[in-house]
Design brief:
The chain is mainly α. Helix content is 59%, strand content 0%. The chain is globular, with a radius of gyration of 15 Å.
Length: 70
Amino acid sequence: SSLQPYIDKTMKQGVSIFRTMMRESNSMYASAPRDGVPVILRRRGDPDIVRELGLLVDEFTSWLERSADE
């Protein structure tokens, strides 16, 4: 990924990062604000992007739960 050097630099500074990656897709994300429907809830679209968004939500939710326990 072209972002890997930035990810590595962030990790070296001790900042927590999410492991789940999601791809950029202007065609998939562009209509969400106009239509008022989040990409992850749309019935059409790239199934890989929808899956990646779901994985990111799962990872973020797990992080929130762990943070609440601290």
